[in-house]
Amino acid sequence: MRDGEIVVEQIRLIVICGPTASGKTSAAIEVAQQVNGEIVNADSVQVYRFMDIGAAKPTAAEQARVRHHLIDVVDPDEPFDAAAFARLGRAAVADIAHRGKVPIVAGGTGLYIKALMGGLARRAASDPAVRQRLRHDLQEAGAAALHARLAGVDPPTAARVHPNDAVRILRALEVFEATGEPLSDHHRHHRFGDAPFNAFIIGLALPREALYGRIDRRVEAMVAQGLEEEVRGLLARGYGEDLKPMQSLGYRHMTALIAGRIDRAQALETLQRDTRRFAKRQLTWFRANRAIRWIAPADIGALLPEIRAFLTCDHG
User: Is the pTM of this model over 0.70?
Assistant: First the structure.
């Protein structure tokens, strides 16, 4: 056991993942009611208090049907990341299983789910002196030149980092110069090392046009339900637009509207567009996991016999 980490031995759980607006909440509730389960939220915005409409949190009625965990656990100005999620998520899963219920992890934040299921990479060493020198080099030569330097010492990382992404370029060069090990090698050697759960992973998939239609309608519904007023309330509480959760979908669009940088039609159009793009990125992430069993949202009920068999059979 690492300091501060809860390690749970091979608890069986269900994971329901997929892109935004694919029906994860409804599917998770249906499964939970059929298998005596409780739901662990795996959405990176639903963990924040006061962010309800834009985060598409389960309604009070939905939360009354099935107990939910990791919703409203931090304020918008409190730090929260995948490591914090993994720690709290594992504690929640252990508690649910200890009480004889089935943990059901549901959400669309792929990194959070991966952290919960397999742990996170140990952070590579850093060196403030190296970092300061690299920042000077950045000011003198520019991001493109440092990206070229990175390509010479760590081609895999350079290939996935944009030439203008100065933050990640600097970090990768710092790791290499401080440790002598490319960041890509560090990740390959150290990432996601433990696997405490036996998981049945379900992905919800829809034809692209159907998914995009659902996204557009959801955005319209959020605006109609008062997303702008929710964001005004957050700003009035002192939560500035520079905060990480305030930069998430919906919140940054409404902040721009409130500030007068865009009009209402632009806010709606760009929010729909950006949400569609986000869903595409989510699908790319999840499609890389070959353990996911993909089904149409409407077919979740037909999968229940397999879910029950997974929960009850001896998997060795």
Answer: yes
